[in-house]
């Protein structure tokens, strides 16, 4: 997938303070640590695309013989090179200042870590990054592909009634919700419905699109959709379970809210490219 350079940079230049906040996200950190410990076997060679502060490379280095931590943002490269030596196993990690869309390791690797993920796969470049990497890697090294962390992804959409009042100021804007928090300003009008799933070692889509019907189970004013992205970080076959990380929910206000009753069938249509801005997600919603 060829994207303009200015679009590619959106997801690769997340502000430094955002990376500090990610270090404090216990669900993200715990999930990736467990998944990487599962995927990276002793003596493995690992590529971390978009390594940020280097924390995922650090998790990998515990078992890996070699980790290439690739980061384009010079400010983050400096931070990774400052922080990693304060931790064990840093001698196994090479911080590479390069564009992950161009870089390939000098030899085949066993595991590729890539976390360029935003809810609904908007803004950041996870899908196009992995697609680009697979094409270039197979051309240089041939099959098989490495194991990917995350391994897969599931996306869902849900009809809701959302309160957009902020201390008396009405503002129907995009909102984000912590998936584990109670949301008193949100009423669920229907169940989440899956609109996309993928495995990163398979062919990847060029769009996130849906044209289907949901059924409401509660009466209310349907004035927003909630988008849910579940990242399957690792599949533990022997234990018959997965290691998951769910992004913050995205609340998207609707331009034309609907009054709905339980059992109403609602047609929802949308289509956007992975990595697009939030403005590209503009659903067409109508009652059947």
Give an overview in words:
This protein is an alpha+beta fold. It has two domains: 145 residues, Vaccinia Virus protein VP39 (Rossmann fold); 136 residues, Hnrnp arginine n-methyltransferase1, CATH 2.70.160. The chain is built from six helices and 17 strands. The strands form four sheets. Strands 6, 9, 10, 11, 13, 14 and 15 form a seven-stranded antiparallel beta sheet that branches. Strands 3-2-1-4-5 form a five-stranded parallel beta sheet, with helices on both faces. The protein has a three-stranded antiparallel beta sheet with strand order 12-16-17, with no helix packed on it. The chain is elongated, with a radius of gyration of 20 Å. 38% of the residues are buried.
Features:
288 residues, alpha+beta, Rossmann fold, Hnrnp arginine n-methyltransferase1, seven-stranded antiparallel beta sheet, five-stranded parallel beta sheet, 6 helices, 17 strands, 22% helix
How are the SSEs placed, and which strands pair?
Blueprint: H1 5-12, H2 16-23, H3 26-39, E1 45-49, H4 55-61, E2 66-71, H5 74-83, E3 93-97, E4 111-114, H6 126-141, E5 147-149, E6 152-162, E7 165-166, E8 169-170, E9 175-177, E10 186-188, E11 193-199, E12 208-215, E13 220-236, E14 241-246, E15 249-260, E16 265-272, E17 284-287
Parallel strand pairs: 1-2, 1-4, 2-3, 4-5
Antiparallel strand pairs: 6-10, 6-11, 6-13, 7-8, 9-15, 12-16, 13-14, 13-15, 16-17
């Amino acid at each position: 997938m060829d994207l303009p350079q200015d679009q590619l940079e959106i997801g690769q230049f997340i502000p430094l303070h955002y990376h500090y906040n990610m270090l404090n996200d216990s669900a993200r950190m715990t999930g990736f640590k467990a998944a990487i410990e599962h995927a990276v076997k002793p003596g493995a060679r690992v590529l971390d695309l978009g390594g940020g502060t280097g924390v995922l490379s650090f998790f990998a280095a515990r078992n890996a013989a070699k980790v290439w931590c690739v980061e384009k943002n010079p400010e983050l490269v400096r931070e990774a090179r400052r922080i990693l030596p304060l931790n064990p196993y840093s001698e196994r990690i090479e911080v590479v200042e390069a564009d992950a869309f161009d870089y390939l390791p000098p030899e085949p690797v066993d595991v590729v870590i890539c976390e360029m993920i935003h809810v609904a796969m908007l803004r950041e470049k996870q899908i196009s990054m992995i697609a680009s990497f697979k094409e270039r890697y197979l051309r240089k090294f041939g099959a098989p592909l490495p194991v990917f962390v995350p391994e897969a992804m599931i996306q869902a959409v849900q009809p809701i009634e959302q309160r957009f009042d902020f201390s008396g100021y009405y503002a129907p804007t995009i909102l984000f919700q912590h998936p584990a928090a109670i949301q008193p300003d949100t009423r669920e009008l229907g169940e989440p419905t899956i609109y996309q799933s993928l495995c990163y070692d398979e062919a990847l889509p060029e769009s996130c699109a849906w044209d289907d019907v949901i059924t409401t189970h509660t009466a209310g004013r349907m004035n927003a959709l909630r988008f849910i992205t579940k990242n399957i970080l690792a599949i533990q076959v022997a234990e018959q379970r997965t290691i998951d990380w769910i992004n913050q929910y995205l609340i998207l206000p609707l331009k034309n809210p609907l009054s709905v009753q339980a059992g109403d069938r609602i047609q929802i249509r949308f289509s956007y490219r992975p990595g697009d801005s939030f403005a590209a997600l503009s659903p067409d919603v109508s009652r059947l």
